[in-house]
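Aim 2 progress update. The chain analyzed this quarter is reproduced below.
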Amino acid sequence: MDIGWRPGIGDPTFGGWATVFLYVVATLSCLRTTLAMRGARLPVGETFAFWRNVTILFVALGINKQLDLQTLFTEIGRVVARDYGWYGQRADVQIAFIILVGLSALGTVVFMTARLRRAPASTAVTFFGVAFLLAFIFVRAGSFHHIDRFIHTSIFGFQWNWVLEIGGICLVMAGSRSRYARLVRRAKARGDVPALRRHSSAGARTPEG
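Predicted structure tokens:
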């Protein structure tokens, strides 16, 4: 199988590295929130599992950002389309793909909204940031001509590709910092601040803010 993807740095530009840096910051922030929840002796339930999974996901997304694995996925799809003779109908496949992504995203939003209905608003903000990021990444991987052309246009010198991805990351960071701040307030009210900080600083040393 001859594909046009090779291992390497996917986006060596300033915007690409800035996005990777923000993935790292967001990962550490989510890790701090996850550890703080455990340190606050909250029940290990839906919210704890959510933050743990977001932390793991962001590690993967940060690595994917520069390995550019979605381009590998796109190239494999093109090769398969050529080999099986439906490359000429790829537009129909792309439309079906984006509909599938849209329905999957909608279903996930409905499901997670029901599961997280009792969670703080900060958790919901983080979830929508994650959902937006995943939808953006999958649609970009679909290699739609008009979408590719749009995301590589610029606004005030910044490509829409960077703006949209960084926007999703910032939503996650905002939700994480807000959730952590709420945990700190709760710990102060219960007199558990030293224990909370001990747990949260064990795995992530980002400024509290």
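The longest helix spans residues 160-190. The chain has a mean pLDDT of 76. These observations will guide the mutagenesis experiments scheduled for the next reporting period.
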